[in-house]
Design goal:
This protein is α+β, with helices and mostly antiparallel strands. Helices cover 32% and strands 24% of the residues. It has a seven-stranded antiparallel beta sheet with strand order 1-2-3-4-7-6-5. β1 and β2 form a beta hairpin. The protein is globular.
Length: 184
């Protein structure tokens, strides 16, 4: 075999090998991407207290009305305190107390519609304190956004996610809404 043919065969083999390797890398990255899209949900229970942390939008929709302004992603913590065995003279069945802390992330179009809806609504400033929205589980970037909030801003009442429940409070950031909803 001539040296020229050996060189051509060597380049062909190297090209084929690189093609196979690059195809495998692409298939691995596709698998990784698909795994990242799977929502995470973790629940910890201790006696009558149950705490669920999740990134599952469908799970959050069990509690909030997200049809009108659907977020692109969420992270939330849902705490339930069962009040079984607790009776008063007024009732024998007591509903559990709950607390939902959530971060709702929106695309720019949905967020613009959300802000437009609030600009048209007639509401009184609720005078919330931004510390109420500094949930312990928040990432540092969001905590810094809250800290940098306008000092004259005092949050929003909820008009859409819980049908105006006075125990649902909002803190609006850039394309992000922090929500705190509670019964106690």
């Amino acid at each position: 075999m001539k040296p020229f043919h050996k060189i051509i065969i060597s380049f062909t083999l190297i090209f084929a090998l690189l093609t196979i390797i690059s195809c495998n890398e692409n298939s691995f990255s596709k698998v990784d991407t698909q795994q990242e899209d799977i929502p995470e949900t973790k629940t910890i229970s201790d006696g009558n207290i149950s705490i669920t942390t999740s990134t599952d939008i469908n799970r959050l929709e069990q509690f909030l009305e997200l049809d009108k302004f659907h977020p692109t992603s969420v992270k939330f913590q849902h705490t339930v305190i069962e009040n079984y065995g607790y009776e008063t003279e007024y009732t024998t069945a007591v509903k559990p107390d709950y607390d939902i802390e959530a971060v709702l992330n929106f695309d720019s179009s949905t967020f613009a519609k959300f802000m437009h809806a609030y600009s048209r609504a007639d509401w009184v400033s609720p005078k919330y304190n931004k510390r109420e929205f500094e949930f312990p589980w928040l990432d540092e970037k969001t905590k810094k956004e809250i800290a940098a909030s306008d000092p004259n801003y005092h949050g929003h009442i909820d008009l859409f996610f819980t049908y105006n429940d006075p125990n649902c409070r909002l803190w609006i950031l850039n394309q992000k809404v922090l929500l705190h909803w509670f019964t106690r």
